[in-house]
Design a protein that fits this description.
heterodimer, A: mainly alpha, Rna Polymerase Sigma Factor, Chain: A, Arc Repressor Mutant, subunit A, 2 domains, 10 helices, B: alpha+beta, Alpha-Beta Plaits, 4-stranded antiparallel sheet, elongated
Chain lengths: 191, 216
Amino acid sequence: MENDEAKRLLALVAEGDQRAFEKLYRAQSRSVYAYVLNQLRNTVEAEVVLSETMFELWKCAAKFKGESTVRTWIFGIARNKMLMQFRARSMDHEDVDAYAEILPSDGPDAIDLIADTQRQQGVKKCMEALSHNHRECLHLVFFESCSIGEIAAIQQVPSGTVKTRLHHARLKIKACLADLLRAERELVAGT
Amino acid sequence: MDQKMMEMLQWYANGSLAPDERQFVEQHLDEHPAYRQQLAFFEALRREVQRSVPPTEPDLGLAATLNKINRHSNPRREVSSEVSRAKHWLERLFSGDAHFRPAYALGVAVIATQTAIIGYLASDTGEPYSQTRAKQIVPPSIGPFVKVSFVPDAKETDIRFLMIQLGASIVGGPSQLGDYYLFLKPDRTDWAAQQLRKSPFVDSVSVIATLPAAKE
């Protein structure tokens, strides 16, 4: 849905138009759900946060001032709800910070690894091991096709921080993949 | 590799670059094939991120959200429905509905009984309870009696317990010096005096034949 149409619907929602709300809901639900699920990794909790986010949108539609896109605004609400959910369950997560030390630069091996072996499972596994902020950045770039400004607005950080997060996320994934490949080669050599 | 180009490649892969920036990147890719490998990495990442999201219905959670909205928008609706239900019940009660007649009669009977009890209690002056509960003790004219004084820190509860244990009644006192006069069955007087002497709450004990004259 284009931002202008979303803004028009949001204005109607602010006046209490439930049909407009339903239309906006259907247009945004998949994106919001995917975004939340990517972080929470729990379908039940993700649905709850989606519902709470959209309920908040209903209550606060009049507060939207148009300083950002409607999508960015909704994602900002979803992010706050998600953080509350994290606090509620004080979730621990595994990070692969150590990989950044192993492979501190963009070498060609990891790229070859992706291109040549098509190890989708490896990419998935390495992405799941990223920190919340890094995984969130990658999701917003590659699922939502957000610009750097939008990501900065959603994460409420400067653009430079987004760049740094993306850089580190990239290095960590490559290092993680290289590590997986090394382990596989050792396994093959041992048999 | 050029760091700026590396950064631009991911925005190229997600399609958020402006047309002139896209053109710049494509030109760079033609001139430097090494960047194609990097682009392949980003495209693989993009595919994997897209694939990681399960298919969902656009109505997912919509019904629950609408319910929440309705409760939020009309908080009085539920209350008013309760009120209207009660009103309807009362209307049926007084309209002579056959099903409600026994209930109506029972309700009236309960109310009438309660009213009668409350009315009786309100109008009952009765005897003054303060007097019946503090009847004057008439001391026996014939002794012997036990004259006892308690230590200064003896509490009322200690004294009461002692009286109960001994089966004694206080028939006089306290005097100006703090003496109490106890009456017991004649065959228990000496035994009671001995018991009192052993008590840590008692200061002095003596057995006397008659009570001192009461001051008018």
